[in-house]
Automatic annotation (TrEMBL):
Domain of life (superkingdom): Bacteria
Protein known as: Sel1 repeat family protein
Organism: Galliscardovia ingluviei
Amino acid sequence: MADIDPRISKNLTAQNDEYYNSIEDQHSKGAISLTIGAKDYQEAMHECISEKKSQLFKKAAHWYEISAQLGNGQAATNLGYMYQFGRLGTKDMEEAARWYEIGLGLGNEEACYKLGDCYYYASGKPHDAEQAYQWYCKANDLARKHCDYKNPEDNAVIGSIYLRLATSIEHGAGDFENEDRLAAAYQLYKSAEQQLRAAEYGGITWYRKQLEKAREGVQRTEQYRSPDEVFDF
């Protein structure tokens, strides 16, 4: 959840309910409320007392919703995660999918691939592997426009998208012939591994399971790699 804007977070000591300025937040397109929500979320993750943890998650959701209403796609995506992982009570994948759709509507590439997951795993949406693949392709297009390949958080997002594209292609999605399919999957698994490794080197350590999946995919498809053909994704 890439959600703290460093231009704002350093000034957050005075940024609470009392000092919150809705006009400034509108001008920032929800970046201020996004950052306040992120602070509450991170505090909740480190809180041991269950009642306080619950209150902090509710505060985070409150600020994320304000931010999403101001057009912030990352805030909507973060709300999707909160419902997916039951931060506000029981897990609710239909509500998670609804927020991922909102995040996608606001142009967020992370929301786009998470919506694809909902279709791929029949979680909050009916199973539709081809629909999932189309959302992963769309997420890749959005990432090309929005992501900074030198930013570890963006490396994690890009790597996550490549991993999903590779998995989908390996298992039959897309217009590929025989060994070309596995060669394309190899290229994407390798790219996913590189991006997720860069994210980990940059301090983003919670994508290790995805990094392992990418490495396993590389090993599974390496024999099909094509030195003469590079697929454009």
